[in-house]
Design brief:
about 425 residues; alpha/beta; Lyase, Ornithine Decarboxylase, Chain A, domain 1; TIM Barrel; 2 domains; nine-stranded mixed beta sheet; 20 strands; globular; binds pyridoxal-5'-phosphate
């Protein structure tokens, strides 16, 4: 579900005509719907209500402090991966007791900042990292809790001898090694190692990898408990799918139906780290058509947003549904899908103005006819859109707008030329 809908051929974000935002704020502009991301958060919270769960929104997906503040007030915790994200969480008034700090390369400075802030959990990726955290805690007179990240790719069964060693990645430790980490470090007096973290990727079209991942770490938790270690929490990290096309991923309730019974049986608390499943389809990038150019076999729609504003198509070959913001009624799309068939459409490449062949949003896309000056919406751009934006080609970063019912406000101003050089003076 999201709140971007066409009314009489005009695209609305909740109760606001997006063309009105473009007039007042300019383009390119990121537009977020509060109702959409709040709805996603609430659905996650409701789906897991049967067990003690903290949903920790992953700040890196979209870290605008105005959005974080709304999520924090609704009870969200946060998943951070840097000192900068900790700072964002603090600026948003987040509850530090609901923050988990993940990432393979935390610096001492970042760790000390997080200890001083009193965050709840550190996710531990290696023995050295744990040693360092223990050392810093002792030096600074702090205590904290930690979750050991185990790599669920390692099968906890007869296949283990095949996979051990080769599956060692920079993330986490394998299950066999996890036992040793507990034996060696559990009694350290500073860092309470009482959770297991598994990161199961970023969501596919079924819940199976998640359920299987949880099942795979349960024997480890049983073993550790038998040996006398307290394991009270499972951090089920990694994201969940988002609807880049309408209704293509499992709902929070679907995931919970597979996961909650497994944790309930073991009396485990749960930490979730949703990013794009909360914010992806709560945001779109609105851009204006600068030119239309037909060259050889191809027609190019050249828009005023570029890969510096939204890099996902270039970086991941990601699909974003794209559609003009004002269309003849016959072109109102019923669903956002890869292959829409209507008559009188045109096949075009939607590209940005940057001098790189990777500066595109869509290739060979069938769209209603678009003319110079037309507004075009790039949907499901809320996650890893603005948060990955940059200034390449000395392009000021776009504004961000939050829509709430019939009103909207700028939650981040468009950068100015002066912003581009101010740190250089
Ligand atoms: C990025 C990240 C997530 C969220 O991923 P999404 O795909 O945006 O949901 C969750 N946990 C950790 C540790 C991450 O780094």
């Amino acid at each position: 579900m999201d709140s971007f809908v066409y009314k009489n051929g005009r695209l609305f974000a909740e109760g606001v005509d997006v063309a009105r935002i473009a007039e007042q704020v300019g383009t390119p502009v990121y537009i977020y719907s509060k109702a959409t991301f709040m709805d996603h958060l609430k659905k996650i919270q409701a789906a897991y209500a049967g067990i003690d769960t903290t949903a920790c929104y992953s700040i890196k997906a979209c870290g605008n402090i105005n959005i974080l503040r709304l999520l924090a007030r609704a009870g969200s915790g946060f998943d951070i991966v840097s000192g900068g994200e900790l700072y964002r969480a603090q600026q948003a008034g987040a509850d530090m007791k609901k923050i988990v700090f993940a990432g393979v390369g935390k610096t001492d400075k970042e760790i000390i900042e997080a200890l001083n802030a009193g965050i709840a959990w550190f996710n531990i990726e290696s023995e050295q990292e744990l040693e360092n955290l223990i050392k810093l805690c002792k030096q600074h007179g702090k205590k904290t809790k930690a979750a050991l990240r185990v790599n669920p790719d390692i099968k906890y069964d007869s296949h283990r001898h095949i996979t051990t060693g080769v599956k060692e990645t920079k993330f986490g430790v394998d299950i066999e090694r996890a036992q040793k980490v507990f034996a060696q470090y559990a009694a350290n007096g500073a860092v309470e190692l009482s959770a297991i973290h598994v990161h199961l990727g970023s969501g596919g079209k079924t819940i199976d990898p998640y359920v299987n991942g949880v099942k795979k770490v349960m024997p480890l938790i049983d073993d550790l408990r038998k040996k006398g270690y307290t394991i009270d929490t499972l951090d089920l990290g990694g994201g969940y799918g988002a609807d880049y096309e309408t209704d293509t991923v499992p709902s929070a309730a679907d995931y919970a139906s597979g996961i909650v019974p497994l944790l309930k049986e073991k009396k485990l608390k749960l930490i979730l780290e949703p990013g794009k499943s909360i914010i992806a389809n709560a945001g779109l990038l609105l851009t204006r058509t600068l030119f239309k150019k037909t060259g050889g076999e191809k027609t190019f729609v050249i828009v005023d947003a570029g890969m510096n504003d939204l890099i996902r198509p270039c970086l991941y070959d990601a699909f974003h549904f794209i559609w003009p913001a004002v269309v003849d009624k016959k072109f109102v799309p019923e669903k956002r899908t890869k292959d829409i068939e209507m008559s009188d459409m045109e096949t075009v490449d939607v590209v940005g103005p940057i001098c790189e062949s990777t500066d595109y949003f869509a290739k060979d896309r069938t769209l209603p006819p678009v003319q110079r000056g037309d507004l075009v919406a790039i949907f499901t751009a809320g996650a890893y859109g603005f948060s990955m934006a940059g200034n390449y080609n000395a392009r000021p970063m776009p504004a961000e707008v939050l829509v709430e019912g019939d009103t909207f406000r700028i939650i981040r101003k468009r950068q100015t030329y002066d912003d581009l050089v101010t740190l250089e003076k």
